[in-house]
Amino acid sequence: AAASRGGFDDRIRTSIQADIADLSEQSNYLYKALDKAVDRFGGKYQVIDTPILQSYTEQLAKAYPGSQAMPTGIRNVLNQVTDPNGITYEALDRLRRTTGEQYAAALRGSNPYPDTDVRSLGQLYDVITRQQNQALEGIVGDRAPEIWGAAKGLVQQRKQLEEISIRALGKDLSNDIMPKLEQSLANVARG
Hints:
By secondary structure, the protein is mostly helical. It has seven helices and two strands.
């Protein structure tokens, strides 16, 4: 039974790792296709219009009298998007990724900006994402947001699968799953 247990664990581990790799490959393919399309239609270093960010910036200016009163996480982002020379598509993309990472860290309890609440980081990430979506559509065309959304969905699925696999198999994916499964089945049988 031990040999079949180990074989089962190995099959589960291999299957999870293959699924994670497949999701990553599929999302990378879509992102690369969008990058090529952006390059074909003016390049990622073109300055873009940012009406969504401008509106958000104006709302924040009303909410916080002076930039020093504004939470650090928000102030750092706004300093980048209010550059008088404008912001390039590439800079906006980088900003979205960085803000997303900061938001994810804050959700896990390690906020890089203690004076900026998690909700504000999430709202900021959403605003930047909407702005990038609009910019992408303006550069590449109507289908771009659909493709970008599909790529982001694949990344979200991959991250969820990674989290589940870490919970089930440990950080290095080396724990055995069968003992946990047997215990769970025994608990269900007991009622």
